[in-house]
Model the fold of this input.
Amino acid sequence: MAISTTPGTNWGTWINLEGSFVDVPSAVLNADNRVSVFVQGGSNTLWSRYEQRDRAWAGWMQHPGSRVAGAPNAIRGKDGKIRVFYRTPDNHIEVITQNAINGGFGAPVDLISNVGGDPAAALNADGRIQVFFRGSDDALWYIHNQGLLYEQYTPPASLGGAIYATPSPALDGSGRIVVAVKGGSDTLYTIQQKSWNSADAWEAFSSETTGVTSRPTVTLDASAHVQIFYRGSDGAAWRVGQRSDYDSFETSVSLRGQILGEPTAFLGQDGRVHAFVKGANEKALWVAVQQTENQPTYFDFQNLGGVIGDVHPQAVIANSENLLYVFVQGSGTPKSLWLLRQVWA
Done:
């Protein structure tokens, strides 16, 4: 049976982007819609490659002065410039910013000291960047742009709680950021802004489900409701969807399968969410696709091939044509970056 994908598209062949990296990659679109990907490479430095207009890839580029000790997180601001946030070996959070739209990057800027985990960024409804991270006290913390001055950030503020993995934020259709976190006793918690653009006003943490054995990851469905994915205590992939009121979450539903690491997901061209995992047995990339737009049921996982290395999560993004790109670490000594992308049928 053909692998379920957007009508009119197929999955292409695996592309070896070479290089060597040791943590989860991060993909982002430039303002001119070229895909870029960032990784922690050798000697704890930040490296990137970008897709050219002919869909070939430029060579690897090292970002001077960067010192990375985890998974970088790239995001494009409302001003059109990409910023890459990352944790350093001495547990600071730094950022590099494009000097101009679609251009090169400036030197690293130190933002925060004494953190306990990697950063994860989301845009507020007005375009301000809000960066979430686990503090050295295990609580959930954040900073954000001061007004629309994109190069100035607020001091760190705590949202409390106790979290045990990198937080996962998303801006939902109501204009409020939702953050999914793994709390104590393998419990999934969410915390949400009180109102549109209320960067510093938050509701209390809400417990959604238990049996969460991976970092929860988030995406939006076609109606801009938050969908949270995680590995359950049974080894399967699970999903929790936001209710229509944008204020609460439904009961968790299993996508079945046996997976390693956390699932990642992205909205496909036809409005159906695609969830990607590393299979527990074959170590291949698998995908489960929503049966119908905005519905809770998914087709069974289907094998996309490849052999994934030690970095289990995969980076997923859509290009300007809404064709999905999935970046994974290859197996073997090189630990190269591999890409599988949708193509027109």
